[in-house]
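Shipment paperwork, digital attachment
Item: protein structure file
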Amino acid sequence: MLAYILKRILLMVPTLLGVLLLTFVVIQFVPGGPVEQYLAEAKAGLGGSAEGGGMAYRGAQGVDPQRIEQIKALYGFDKPAHERFVQMLGQFARFDLGQSFFQNKPVWTLIAEKLPVSISLGLWTFFISYLVAVPLGIAKAVRAGSRFDLVTTLLILVGYAIPGFVLGVALLVIFGGQLQWFPLRGLTSANWDELTLLGKVVDYLWHIALPVTAMVAGSFAVTAMLTKNAFLEEIRKQYVLTARAKGLSERQVLWKHVLRNALIPIITGFPAAFIGAFFAGSLLIETLFSLDGLGLLSYESVIRRDYPVVLGSLYLFTLIGLVTKLISDLCYVWVDPRVKFD
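Attachment content:
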């Protein structure tokens, strides 16, 4: 087991290097880098023209070349690309994610400021998906082929087929715009500080209802169908027939024998689903509902070419994803001792 863990940890290094190298190379060919963004903002502030596009960038017209070189040195673009990449790897090895170009804050500080919003969305999405989908999947497996199974399958497939962003737009238009039952943006109201404790809880749940509903749809469908299929596979095995032949009740067979084996793929997927609820799929939802979380931070950083934030957050999320995958694999051994990695 120890050798397997060490091997997986060592394999994380080339994976991280590959992800960072590919992203870094792509960034070098994207027009309108930080220097151009800075000049465009300066031109806009002076009322000048700030049209951009590749090598023939017009926003730099009329700017002192010495000033442009100073700006390049400020952002570190006075060095060759390979030197900047090696320097970045050295910083990341010390878990130094660098400084934002445009917000004058360390990347760690920006991530820490946005993390509570993403955690809030992720926790609700994770718990609602599993607390509802797992019992529903069990009920569908027990009643396989019944009208209940067919109706719920149809509803689940419809929910899965609708992208979370499209569902979010529909929820905003109907419940936020036409009916005005829910707010259109943010996690709290403007008078949050004036509310009582109960009022703050109600206000928070009122704001979180629509974005969580939009995020739950896809993960809910996958978990419910996975649970159903796992239960159906276990119910058809020989040990279930043996348990019934010994006179055990259907409840004992399902909850004492079938449940333990059927939940193995569900439980082992907990770490990945838990982390994925925070970082995956939240970009469009946070942008749509104007929630100041990690997804919106990443989107704005890409638009503004804030490369330290883009690469720093990518490095952190990739590392978390690799560690989570390792934990998921180790959960197989914890749940099912029959699994041997060697």
